[in-house]
Write a sequence for this structure.
């Protein structure tokens, strides 16, 4: 067999053997306040622009807020054992690069679910919440696969500025 | 593509957050055996724990069945004062060994009710203190959980309830607590 043919065969095998991962999923996030709404959608971690800025929703203390997120395998490919993790956590400043630690006193709301994605069946959530302290908050949805040896996560995120 | 050093730094924190998320869900498994032990004759599909935590008081409720809408077990009562910082959480785990449960809705709400232990379940209202829902496929041991800080401004009696909808069974599953706010 010619080396070039062998290389093609190996590459094809690698392509087919590549596990389906969380970055095969599409996540969307919508945050709505009394007068404003903002949207975000999937940014695979490995494609994240270095200086990307998150959209900001402005709200007042104790204003009713609603978040809606969806997560789906858009082409219907199976992505097993995904952890979908959502949280609203206080951060130090808008567009902070570091995701804050999820300490109890900083987290406003946090949810998680596990699911095998297939057949274009989505996972969705609608959650209401209020923020009772002024400040800046990160609103983020992440989809992660369990293989801890690989970087297999995607996310969508917004900032929330509460005055 | 982000520089490699950022990927590694990010990866570490992502794994830590994944571990944190797992910690959020793990109590469901710890309490699974208890919930199974308290099940009735009906085949149970979900183990549920619902916890309300405040200044010095904590109440926990487990899975119950509807119908009847109010379930088969009395609801625990949680006491607090208006404005107290409160935290609630729930964990729901699919314990049905047979099938994946597809596109199940899990709904929760905290609404005013007339009295502690009332049988009628108030409808989720637009002015609910808390409300939300999830839609997902439950594989075996598939889980959903939520933790949220909140407070209630007005004294009164409130129902906090998390329930399944359209689980394609002859009954639905829920867990509920009454909150008496003074």
């Amino acid at each position: 067999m010619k080396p070039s043919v062998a290389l093609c065969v190996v590459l094809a095998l690698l392509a087919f053997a590549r596990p389906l991962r969380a970055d095969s999923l599409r996540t969307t996030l919508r945050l709505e306040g009394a007068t404003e709404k903002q949207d975000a959608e999937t940014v695979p971690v490995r494609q994240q622009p270095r200086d990307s800025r998150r959209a900001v929703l402005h709200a007042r203390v104790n204003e009713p807020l609603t978040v809606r997120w969806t997560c789906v395998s858009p082409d219907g490919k199976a992505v097993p054992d995904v952890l979908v993790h959502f949280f609203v956590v206080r951060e130090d400043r808008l567009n902070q690069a570091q995701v804050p630690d999820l300490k109890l006193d900083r987290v406003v709301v946090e949810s998680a679910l596990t699911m095998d994605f297939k057949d274009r069946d989505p996972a969705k959530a609608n959650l209401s919440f209020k923020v009772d302290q002024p400040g800046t908050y990160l609103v983020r949805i992440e989809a992660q696969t369990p293989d801890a040896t690989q970087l297999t996560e995607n996310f969508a995120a917004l900032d929330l500025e509460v005055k | 593509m982000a520089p490699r050093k950022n990927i590694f730094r990010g990866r570490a924190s992502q794994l830590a957050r994944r571990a944190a998320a797992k910690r959020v869900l793990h109590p469901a498994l710890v309490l699974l055996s208890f919930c199974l032990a308290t099940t009735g004759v009906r085949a149970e599909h979900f183990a549920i724990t619902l916890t309300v935590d405040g200044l010095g008081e904590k109440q926990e409720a487990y899975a119950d069945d509807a119908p009847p809408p109010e379930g088969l077990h009395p609801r625990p009562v949680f006491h607090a004062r208006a404005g107290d910082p409160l935290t609630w959480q729930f964990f729901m785990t699919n314990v049905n060994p047979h099938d994946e449960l597809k596109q199940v809705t899990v709904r929760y709400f905290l609404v005013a009710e007339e009295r502690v232990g009332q049988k009628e379940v108030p409808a989720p209202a637009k002015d609910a203190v808390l409300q939300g829902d999830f839609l997902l496929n439950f594989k075996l041991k598939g889980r959903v959980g939520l933790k949220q800080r909140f407070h209630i401004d007005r004294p009164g009696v409130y129902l906090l309830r998390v329930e399944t909808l359209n689980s394609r069974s002859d009954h639905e599953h829920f867990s509920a607590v009454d909150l008496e706010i003074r």
Q: What stands out?
A: The CA atoms of residues 113 and 122 of chain B lie 7 Å apart. The helical segments of chain B are 4-30, 32-37.
